[in-house]
């Protein structure tokens, strides 16, 4: 029987610095005590868990250096064992510390992957995944995971201790630039975020965005990572949007709505949107088709997006492929008093690397169709904001999702037009047409990008590209589909070619292009010359 | 004018709010314009916009790239006069009485109609005219917005609500009296010729009679002037009902909901309808009783036949037996 008094002698003088490998500290007869002391106060980094192994009891070290040396030996032997094969271990308990406001189940939900761990290697990998997931919740300043030995009566187990530090300052703000492909332009957005108001990992944000095309959006959103046991996070966004299309199509759009993200995964996204939309014409020069659409409408739609993006970069893809498809069904109310339409668009990209000067050939094809449904749908017009408009000041290489931009053509710059109201005073606008967009749209692009032979350009990421694109929109509704023929559609394809310089910055991708318009029609707003485009990621 | 010439090549279309209450367009701002074009025998097509109740551009007249909106140049009627398209008032501008009556209709009667539609009655008529094709939440919010805006325009506050109401009704009554006196037994208000004054007044009268509920105070004040009622019904039949059977196609941009019919016979005819219903009930009772009687008769006959037929058979058997007995 060893003297109980001898035990305190064996523990190191500074008890906070107890190492996990306490089996070496203790006398042969007293194997159990050290491990129990160990559980609470351990704050070492994940580095191995020698306490698990309960290896042959080592002789009592004499000094701290000797202790460190023995621990190092143990670590090395553990790593050696891990290199040769799986070291079996399973997780016994997950201990969460440091959360005062955040509910336990939010953190526990992210640690489910630890339950299936069977070996040391898997445990390390799983711990890293859990660490990344918890940091992705954006509500913690730091996340520290420690692996520790399990209770001594259960060999081959480990405890995982998760220490989180909640954000000291829940309010944060940011300003960024984004590209809205549907609007064909970029926006600058400033937002304020409040994190973890109720302890459910909830992220509240309010943002104000101003677009180059005179659009303003004020919105507030909520993101819940775990709501009532649902698999995917729930997002809800209430917004007030105002868009000014007076210059192109003589109407102003004002929307007030709510959009709910129902399901979101890497490839799939389902969202429901309900909004009150009003189209007005304060300029009072709208053409007949636009006049007929002015008024209030209820929009109740479900949108499904499927995306696969295997390109190596969104700003400068040099390898890979991508596929986007968006389906939107509107009119989801029991009566017929809402906008009923079906809208489908797709976008396919394929990039072929060419090997020299980091050159790559980027091909893209995109198309879309929109059609109303319900009684007498073939003679009804499609809703103006749901139609396809080609043209804009963003680069087609970056605008993904559907047919939107063509090099050289200005915003809403091509497609069917209708003469505006004739105003009899001297200040009448000579151009006097409204661009009505189309129900069927198609674009195709080919872009060869390559590095310039100068080192300075290469270092900054500035490169050049040669491009060609073609596109067209056509009207199908109001019985126009009877007059539609593929041959006519192809014959009236607008196209342009050009060459330019691409300057990628941290906020956006800027292109300085010289575009030559190969084919355009009378009212198209396109000009041969130098154009600048901005696209944000 | 070359503009008029260009426009003649394309048809004119009147875009108004939807028809309801047996009127070609039930909105009090649109109906006068419709009547004016009809009085001038001006050919036009009718098209509807029922999703923009709060627009001051509607009603408007369009032809090709020419559009006359209601919120410009003093209204569509004035604009059409200026552009030389339709003008019924060429001789009346200098007649002071005509100008004064025009002003009275445009202010006192217009205010009274606005008040009665949105504040005085329960708002059901207004909802049917303006919001029946919109989604319920949108319609409700727009209705509340409009009620607030009307109260602002008429200067009605919580404190002076009753007083303002009395004032509005009193002015309407005076206006009706003056117009009734002016009208007399004539076909039109001035010089026995139609003018925009007739169109505006007739529009007001038809909406008051047909669209406002029977409990409406304004409507009951109007019903006191028989010559106005006669004048309105006669012109309605001439312009609206006869032309609807023979005029060109009417384009409906949205499907119109069912319109309840209310003719002149219904002004005070509630007791008439009651005896009709009672008669049919009596008839039904009589028919039911007759059926029961017939059924009872048939049953009696059947019973009689079955009983008597059975006894005959018994008698016959007895006879046989008797005969047998006789023999034996």
Automatic annotation (TrEMBL), chain A:
Subcellular location: Mitochondrion outer membrane; Plastid, Chloroplast outer membrane
Organismal lineage: Eukaryota, Viridiplantae, Streptophyta, Embryophyta, Tracheophyta
Region (Disordered): 1-71
Protein name: POTRA domain-containing protein
Domain POTRA: 89-167
Species of provenance: Hibiscus sabdariffa (roselle)
Biased composition (Acidic residues): 24-48
InterPro entries registered for this protein in UniProt: Bac_surfAg_D15, BamA/TamA_POTRA, D15-like, POTRA
Keyword entries, A-Z: Membrane, Plastid, Plastid outer membrane, Transmembrane, Transmembrane beta strand
Gene3D superfamilies in the record: membrane protein fhac, membrane protein fhac: a member of the omp85/tpsb transporter family
Automatic annotation (TrEMBL), chain B:
Low complexity bias: start-end ranges: 244-270
Pfam families: GST_C_6, GST_N_4
Transmembrane segments: 292-311
Region (Disordered): 244-285
Family: Belongs to the metaxin family.
Function: Involved in transport of proteins into the mitochondrion.
Listed PANTHER family: FAILED AXON CONNECTIONS-RELATED (PTHR12289:SF41), METAXIN RELATED (PTHR12289)
The protein's name: Metaxin
Species: Hibiscus sabdariffa (roselle)
């Amino acid at each position: 029987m060893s003297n109980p008094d001898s035990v305190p002698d064996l523990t190191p003088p500074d008890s906070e610095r107890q190492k996990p490998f306490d089996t070496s500290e203790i006398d042969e007869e007293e194997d159990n005590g050290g491990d129990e002391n160990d559980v609470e106060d351990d704050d070492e980094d994940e580095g191995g868990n020698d306490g698990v192994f309960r290896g042959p009891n080592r002789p009592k070290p004499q000094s701290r250096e000797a202790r460190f040396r023995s621990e190092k030996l143990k670590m090395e032997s553990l790593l050696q064992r891990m290199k040769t094969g799986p070291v079996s271990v399973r997780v016994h308990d997950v201990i969460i510390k440091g959360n005062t406001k955040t509910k336990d189940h939010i953190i526990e939900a992210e640690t489910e992957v630890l339950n299936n761990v069977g070996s040391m290697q898997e445990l390390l990998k799983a711990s890293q995944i859990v660490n990344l997931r918890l940091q992705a919740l954006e509500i913690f300043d730091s996340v520290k995971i420690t692996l520790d030995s399990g209770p001594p009566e259960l060999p081959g187990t480990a405890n995982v201790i998760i220490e989180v530090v909640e954000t000291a300052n829940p309010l944060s703000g940011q300003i960024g630039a984004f590209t809205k492909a549907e609007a064909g332009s970029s926006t600058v957005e400033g937002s304020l975020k409040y994190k973890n108001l109720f302890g459910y990992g909830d992220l509240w944000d309010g943002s104000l965005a101003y677009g180059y095309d005179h659009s303003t959006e004020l919105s507030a959103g909520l993101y819940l990572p775990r709501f009532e046991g649902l698999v995917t996070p729930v997002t809800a966004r209430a917004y007030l949007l105002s868009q000014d299309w007076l210059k192109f199509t003589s109407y102003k759009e004002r929307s007030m709505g709510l959009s709910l993200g129902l399901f979101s995964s890497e490839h799939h996204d389902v969202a429901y949107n309900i909004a009150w939309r009003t189209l007005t014409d304060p300029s009072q020069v709208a053409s007949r088709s636009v006049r007929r659409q002015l008024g209030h409408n209820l929009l109740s739609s479900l949108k499904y997006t499927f995306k696969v993006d295997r390109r190596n970069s969104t700003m400068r893809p040099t390898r890979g492929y991508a596929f986007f498809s968006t389906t939107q069904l509107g009119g989801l109310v029991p009566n017929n008093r809402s906008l009923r339409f079906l809208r489908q668009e797709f976008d396919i990209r394929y990039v072929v690397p060419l090997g020299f000067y980091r050159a790559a050939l980027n091909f893209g094809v995109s198309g879309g169709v929109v059609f109303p449904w319900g009684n007498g749908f073939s003679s009804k017009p499609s809703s103006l904001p749901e139609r396809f408009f080609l043209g804009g000041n963003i680069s087609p290489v970056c605008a993904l999702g559907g047919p939107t931009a063509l090099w050289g053509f200005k915003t809403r710059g091509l497609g069917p037009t209708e003469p505006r109201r004739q105003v009899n005073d001297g200040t009448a606008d000579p151009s006097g047409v409204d661009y009505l967009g189309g129900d069927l749209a198609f674009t195709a692009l080919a872009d060869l990008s390559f590095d310039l032979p100068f080192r300075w350009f290469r270092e900054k990421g500035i490169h050049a590209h040669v491009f060609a694109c073609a596109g067209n929109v056509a009207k199908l509704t109001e019985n126009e589909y009877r007059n539609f023929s593929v041959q006519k559609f192809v014959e009236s394809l607008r196209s342009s070619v050009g060459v330019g310089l691409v300057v990628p910055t941290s906020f956006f991708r800027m292109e300085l292009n010289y575009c030559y318009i190969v084919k355009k029609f009378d009212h198209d707003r396109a000009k041969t010359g130098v154009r600048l485009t901005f696209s944000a990621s | 004018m070359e503009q008029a010439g260009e426009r003649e090549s394309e048809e004119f279309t009147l875009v108004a709010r939807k028809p309801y209450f047996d009127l070609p367009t039930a909105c009090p701002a649109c109906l006068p314009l419709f009547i004016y074009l009809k009085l001038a025998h001006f050919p036009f097509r009718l098209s509807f916009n029922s999703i923009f109740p709060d627009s001051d551009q509607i009603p408007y007249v369009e032809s090709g790239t020419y559009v006359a909106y209601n919120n410009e140049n003093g209204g569509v009627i004035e604009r059409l006069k200026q552009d030389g398209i339709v003008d019924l008032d060429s001789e009346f501008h200098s007649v002071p009485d005509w100008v004064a009556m025009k002003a009275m209709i445009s202010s006192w009667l217009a205010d009274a109609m606005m008040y009665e539609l949105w504040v005085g009655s329960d708002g059901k008529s207004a909802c049917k005219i303006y919001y029946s094709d919109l989604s319920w939440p949108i319609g409700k919010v727009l209705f509340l917005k409009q009620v607030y805006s009307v109260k602002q325009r008429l200067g009605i506050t919580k404190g002076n609500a009753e007083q303002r109401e009395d004032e509005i009704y009193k002015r309407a009554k005076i206006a009706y009296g003056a117009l009734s006196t002016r009208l007399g037994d004539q076909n039109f208000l001035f010089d026995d010729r139609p003018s925009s004054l007739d169109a505006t007044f007739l529009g007001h009268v038809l909406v008051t009679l047909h669209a406002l509920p029977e409990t409406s105070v304004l409507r009951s004040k109007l019903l006191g002037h028989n010559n106005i009622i006669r004048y309105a019904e006669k012109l309605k039949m001439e312009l609206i009902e006869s032309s609807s059977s023979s005029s060109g196609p009417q384009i409906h941009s949205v499907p119109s909901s069912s319109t309840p019919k209310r003719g002149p016979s219904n002004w005070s005819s509630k007791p008439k309808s009651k005896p009709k219903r009672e008669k049919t009930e009596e008839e039904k009772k009589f028919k039911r009783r007759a059926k029961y009687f017939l059924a009872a008769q048939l049953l009696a006959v059947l019973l009689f036949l079955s009983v008597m037929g059975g006894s005959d058979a018994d008698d016959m058997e007895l006879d046989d037996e008797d005969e047998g007995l006789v023999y034996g």
